[in-house]
């Protein structure tokens, strides 16, 4: 039976951080070193656990899909299986629930990354290892054809990546990783088209699109004008 992802503690962390960082921004208070360390450690712990949950669940679903392929391989050429949509009703319901829970998780990561988290580090620059947690969570989901094809999850992933690019200088790393995914996974063609369209039209991040084109097509972006 599927157990819904409990985001309560993460949402509490978001609210507490938002309140603390807003107070520093308005000049009402200043975080001392102890408070800074406490908030930073809570942020890193909750973000790590949430990203690990997504990663572990995706790995389990993919392992189950591969097992289904192996089991059906011995049933003859007419047997079908291996894709999430080809499995039994209980598994299908499980995956439909996971689509919803996964979207919530990615949206929660996006919400917290929109805060001015740089203030929790001294000097005020978020650690690359921390930024890589939500970023790698996005790329892991895009590797999965079913997740990448889901419009809601793709939109949530695109929004989170845009936040990381805009606030934390993740542009080059994002471009390189998306280009690698495009080379490795055929389903990324349509998915990447949707992401690029959103980057240009919704997020106004033409710079990362130029970088992506440069990485993917060896300078073809020099012929494009946005």
Automatic annotation (TrEMBL):
<feature type="domain" description="Condensin complex subunit 1 N-terminal">
    <location>
        <begin position="17"/>
        <end position="173"/>
    </location>
</feature>
<protein>
    <submittedName>
        <fullName>Cnd1_N domain-containing protein</fullName>
    </submittedName>
</protein>
<dbReference type="InterPro" id="IPR024324">
    <property type="entry name" value="Condensin_cplx_su1_N"/>
</dbReference>
<dbReference type="InterPro" id="IPR026971">
    <property type="entry name" value="CND1/NCAPD3"/>
</dbReference>
<dbReference type="GO" id="GO:0042393">
    <property type="term" value="F:histone binding"/>
</dbReference>
<dbReference type="GO" id="GO:0000796">
    <property type="term" value="C:condensin complex"/>
</dbReference>
<dbReference type="GO" id="GO:0007076">
    <property type="term" value="P:mitotic chromosome condensation"/>
</dbReference>
<dbReference type="GO" id="GO:0000779">
    <property type="term" value="C:condensed chromosome, centromeric region"/>
</dbReference>
<dbReference type="Pfam" id="PF12922">
    <property type="entry name" value="Cnd1_N"/>
</dbReference>
<dbReference type="GO" id="GO:0010032">
    <property type="term" value="P:meiotic chromosome condensation"/>
</dbReference>
């Amino acid at each position: 039976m599927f157990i819904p992802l409990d985001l309560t503690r993460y949402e509490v962390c978001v609210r507490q951080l938002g309140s603390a960082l807003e107070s520093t921004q308005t000049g009402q208070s200043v975080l001392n070193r102890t408070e800074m360390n406490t908030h930073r450690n809570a942020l890193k712990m909750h973000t790590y656990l949430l990203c690990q949950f997504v990663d572990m669940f995706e790995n389990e679903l993919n392992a189950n899909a591969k097992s289904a392929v192996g089991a059906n391989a011995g049933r003859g050429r007419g047997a079908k299986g291996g894709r999430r949509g080809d499995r039994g009703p209980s598994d299908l319901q499980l995956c439909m629930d996971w689509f919803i829970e996964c979207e919530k998780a990615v949206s929660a990561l996006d919400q917290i990354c929109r805060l001015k988290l740089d203030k929790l580090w001294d000097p005020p620059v978020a650690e690359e290892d921390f930024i890589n947690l939500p970023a790698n969570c996005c790329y892991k989901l895009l590797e999965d054809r079913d997740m990448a094809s889901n419009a809601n999850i793709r939109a949530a992933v695109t929004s989170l990546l845009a936040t990381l690019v805009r606030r934390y200088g993740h542009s080059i790393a994002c471009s390189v990783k998306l280009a690698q995914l495009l080379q490795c996974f055929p389903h990324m063609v349509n998915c990447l088209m949707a992401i690029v369209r959103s980057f240009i039209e919704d997020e106004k991040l033409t710079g990362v699109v130029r970088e992506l084109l440069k990485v993917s097509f060896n300078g073809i972006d020099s012929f494009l004008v946005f």
